[in-house]
Amino acid sequence: xxxxxxxxxxxxxxxxxxxxxxxxxxxxxxxxxxxxxxxxxxxxxxxxxxxxxxxxxxxxxxxxxxxxxxxxxxxxxxxxxxxxxxxxxxxxxxxxxxxxxxxxxxxxxxxxxxxxxxxxxxxxxxxxxxxxxxxxxxxxxxxxxxxxxxxxxxxxxxxxxxxxxxxxxxxxxxxxxxxxxxxxxxxxxxxxxxxxxxxxxxxxxxxxxxxxxxxxxxxxxxxxxxxxxxxxxxxxxxxxxxxxxxxxxxxxxxxxxxxxx
Length: 261
Hints:
The structure is a single chain. The protein is mainly alpha-helical. The chain has one domain (3-255). 81% of the residues lie in helices and 0% in strands. It contains twelve helices and no strands. It has helices at 3-39, 44-47, 54-89, 100-113, 115-126, 131-148, 151-161, 163-170, 174-202, 208-223, 227-247, 251-255. Helix 4 packs parallel to helix 9, helix 9 crosses helix 10 and helix 10 (208-223) runs antiparallel to helix 11 (227-247). The longest helix has 37 residues, at 3-39. The termini are far apart.
């Protein structure tokens, strides 16, 4: 290998490592915020019925974005690091894409934006009381479980589990193309994990134990060998839990950390 090529490869390796370290640091900061928020007291929006309000919606979406950064960013690191390595190796006018930081921002903006419909859906769910609320949670658990077992889930999961295959199939040169690539990957990630996030909100009330559990499931699905079976096992468990809640509505209080409607 020529000396210039060796130096270039070393620089690329160091940049890839530095990018990964910085993204892990960002995820760590987000995790600290999530834990501190959880330990400082309950989020009243998650346990009480409140009217839809712009201020509450903005506060919820901000908290949601921080939580998604903590939960989703670590499992997205292989894709982001590989993208950064490839785009740094691109040469020629019009071939280089946006920096890895912008690619990551597109990913996080997509997840953060989902906080708006999640806030609306959760606020409407919290207007229910007693048995209707419990049955609503049971329906969400069943729907999430069925989706985990569906072919669409597997399609989205394969895209998340194979960064190289995804990039080879979706790569577009240039700034606009790389932004579209980031958007496309975020959409697949959203398709992979949206049902688990609904469970986090409806059944878990965004409690720390549920945040940790679902983060572990997401990471297992995407990063572990045989992650497809992790997804199927989670789906089966959610279906079973949904049936159990439908038969024993009082269990919603246990799931939501002592809070129900």
